[in-house]
Amino acid sequence: LNAINHIARITSSNLDIRQVLDEVYDCLSDLLPMDAFYASIYQPERDDISVSYSRDEGILSFSDHNGPPNPKSLSAWILQNVQCLRFDDLREEQTKHGFEPVPFGNKSKKSASWLGVPLLGRDGQAIGVLSVQSYTAGLYGDREERFLVTVASQFAMNVLNAALFQQAQAQVEALGIDGANLPRPDPGAGAPAGTAESCHAE
Fold it and tell me: 150-172: per-residue pLDDT in tens?
């Protein structure tokens, strides 16, 4: 509960997505066994991954333009089906299920344990993915999945509020008004929102 409250404070007090993900990663790495972390923000109207954030053994990779998700990737499945996805050993299970994980990080290693959950928008549509991964098999169960779903709901509200703030700023700028004092969205007003994967993968 303390961890969830901490993440809620992080996501409600900062609209800088990269900074929020840095703090979410730090918090999750203290609570879950993981070697890698992946988060993405998806724009369904454009079929575009607008933000991709990954950590492999602590090393950060961040991109704010990525194009459409790979259709056979784990992230694409989560976005399309709006469901969680979990593997005890992705190395053995991916072929059986027809997945082609998109690797990131250290390509000499591959994820075994893999858990990904969708970020949900106000209409229930997937607007992104959170994933934790490990080189060790069999680490994630129902408890870890429920916890990551809760974290994803908190982060999704942050994504929605950041988008609202950016839209308001753009409208103000289009009108030629000074938007320096533009009020930020109420963190409590959003509803839960939510793609990479293995060497670690998407």
Answer: 999 999 999 998 777 566 666 66
